[in-house]
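Re: export button greyed out
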Amino acid sequence: MGLLSCNNVMVDYDGYVATKNVTFTIEEGDYFCIVGENGSGKSTLMKAILGLNKISGGTVSYEGVKRTEIGYLPQQTVVQKDFPASVYEVVLSGCLNKSGLIPFYNKAQKERVSQAMKRLRIEELKRKSYRELSGGQQQRVLLARALCATEKLLLLDEPVTGLDPYVAKELYDLLEELNQKEKLTIIMISHDIKAALQYANKILHMKTEPLFYGSKEEYASSEIGMQLAGGEKNV
Amino acid sequence: MFDVLQELFSYTFIVRAFVVGIFVSLCAALLGVSLVLKRYSMIGDGLSHVGFGALAVATAFNAAPLQVSIPVVMVAAFLLLRISENTKIKGDAAIALVSSSSLAIGIITISLTTGMNTDVCNYMFGSILAMSKSDVKISVIVAVIVLIMFVLFYNKIFAITFDQNFATATGIKAKRYNMLLAFLTALTIVVGMRMMGAMLISSLIIFPALTSMRVFKSFFGVIISSAVLSVVCYFIGLVISFAYSIPTGASIVAVNLVTFILFSIIGIMKRN
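Workaround output, generated via the alternate export path:
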């Protein structure tokens, strides 16, 4: 079943076109990787999908998923770095989209939070201040929050940037498990082409507009995919 | 000390100021945490100047001050929020424009009508004599509404303060809650500014939050600490203002400043 589709999506900032001609469909259970250089419009596209950027052309349509059933792991912003918030408060805020107008969290939501924290092994950080954590720990906290917000669709913007290889591998394994066992659909922006080729089933290669869109197998045998995957190996 | 307190509360105007002040400082402190963290504290400052203009015009036309300034400042809150969300205009500069213009309009109105007198001084620097009985009623009602709204929307306010993008992305109407925050701030400022003065009311918003953030590390901790600090500082400030005959607003700000320095030292010591 289709979850989400983009049709000819275009975003521009004051006449500067950041991304255009993007068309793709996400099916349930997909592991969709968006790759490309810095400034190629990947984050812009993801934000357009999430309704954070205004779309200046085309459509984004949600089919099998509601707006309140989405989890998102953003790139870290500056404001958060000195924010007084405990890990528990941050993760709990992920449950908010299920609350509607009810002002307080219920037991089931709190249970969901402890599940997510257990899964990401951050239980012992529960009372710690978010701003005092290491980059990798913060990333895990934000992922736990994202998992509280969704059972269906998770969007991640460069989740492994700044993580050491061991933690990054752990994160990839967790995402694979969620994708395989719990049928969580994943859309991920990544610089890590090798990992994209290993885990994803579909790949979109962006350079303002799509250079490639298709299955990972097609990508691996395409000219652009071979170039990049080859390049990675030489590094 | 006890004598001073006894004497203090034998005056009805002080009791009024005390009641309104406690409510206003509570509201300001609670909203302030979110405003400071969202980098919206300038909006509070801008609104207080708009409030000054509105009060001056209301007085000139012999209108009821609160009934005029509440809607005007609410509209201003809406506009200022739109300005600061719009990336094309320099938000802080635009707020400075609005606030100095309102100040100018207020001062022109006053000098054309009543002339520069103690009223103006009171608007600028506050006076505990400013509250009439009906003002107290309106102020307390408004403050209670603000407090109830804050408690009901606490979790949403946390979410949009911590990470507005995440909130929006996961289907929460963040802009609506930003607007709520701005409206609640507008209400608090209008109610509090005549006692604290247009120049000093924003300190009630900023100080408790900044002070608490020196020491506390969770959002909830900062909220509770701000509320307690704000009320305590208000009380001490009021007593000092009475005992030494200095303007209430200034005295409260001075107490807040001392607390801020104390908490900064505690914060540094805790870290080492």
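Chain B has a mean pLDDT of 87. The button fix ships in the next patch.
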